[in-house]
Request: fold
Amino acid sequence: MHFINSTFLLRFAVIVILLAHSVPGMFDHGINDFGNLYLNQVGFAPVGVPIAWAIKLSHVLCAICLLFQKYVRWVSSVTILILLAGIIMVHFKEGWFVVGGGRNGVEFNFLLIFVLLTIMFPAGLNKYSGKG
Reply:
């Protein structure tokens, strides 16, 4: 099994998170609600629902690519951009903490971004900077 390597545990955790964050909304109208009740209301009307579906389908695509280690840098880059947009549009105004010292903050997105960067560059940044 060539896909079980040093990043497998991190990839598996991100796969579970991405699927848990996207698939249920496909069946309980959560994605449509996100598009209609949030994205359309903050200025994306009339394309809020298609954008919401594109975001969630990109999460599923990212999960599949992470599982099979295909196009990892590309799909992770797209997912990082989505997480950054989430920080800017939703989470930043709520502060740092997701729970405890606050609610709905940036800490979870921050962690996911750095986990994805670690998956994208498993040898560390030294390999890509010409050092080490």
